[in-house]
Structure formats: C-alpha cells, structure tokens
Amino acid sequence: MPRSVNAAASKARRKRILKAAKGFYGKRKNVYTVAKNVLEKGQTYSYVGRKVKKRDYRALWIARINAAVRAEGLTYSQFIHKLAEKNIDLNRKVLANLAMNEPETFTKLVKSVK
C-alpha cells in the first residue's frame, strides 16, 4: 500500500505560516522552520503584551489621578478611600479622564469628597 502524506494539508499549513511571517527580516520570512519558531515566539509576546498593556494603563491612570489630587491637598489613597466612603463608583479610567480633560469638574468632585 502506498504511503499517504496528505501533501495538500501540509502545503496549506506551511503557506499559512509563511503568509503570517510576511514582512519579517531575512530567513524569518521564507524559511518555514525559522518562520514557525519566530511566529510562535511573537504570539507569546503578543498574548503577554495584552496583559501588560492593562497594567500600564492602570498605572498611568493612577499617576494622573494622584497628580491632580495632590494639587487639591489630598493623596491618591486618601481620595480613593473617601470616594468609597461616599459610595461614588467611578473607575480610575473615568477619574483620570476627568482630571486631564475637565479639571473644574474634577476639582468639584474632590471638594464634594473632602
């Protein structure tokens, strides 16, 4: 019985990998084994990067809120604690946006919390 290798599926698999590696430099774009390894590594980085991006944005929001609140005579942690006490449920993204783009509104919010 002849050996069955399913060349169509193998070719499609290689084609898919090489198409995804388009634009890479050197052998990374046209040698299947190298492209496969590089893509695998890149996909790992992109997965981790999506998690890191969330951390980075949260840190940025906290820094912006802290800077705006310190100008009003509070610290970030005091401000967040007082917001929780008053049952004001605004997330850090919204608070940072207010602090950056609408300082008057943010100042009123800080004064209402004090």
How would you portray this structure in words?
The protein is mostly helical. The chain has one domain (8-113): c-terminal domain of poly(a) binding protein. The protein contains five helices and no strands. It is rod-shaped and about 85 Å long. The model has no long low-confidence stretch (mean pLDDT 94).
List the domain count as a whole number. Answer: 1
Give me the CATH superfamily: Ribosomal protein L20, C-terminal domain
Major sheet size, sense and barrel closure: none
Helix content: over 70%
- Could you name the CATH class? Mainly Alpha
CATH topology: c-terminal domain of poly(a) binding protein
- Proportion in β-strands: under 5%
SSE layout:
Blueprint: H1 7-20, H2 32-70, H3 76-85, H4 92-101, H5 103-113
Helix pairs in contact: 1-2, 2-4, 4-5
Summarize this structure as a short list of keywords or feature phrases:
114 residues, mainly alpha, c-terminal domain of poly(a) binding protein, 74% helix, rod-shaped
Short synopsis of the structure:
This protein is an all-alpha fold and 114 residues long.
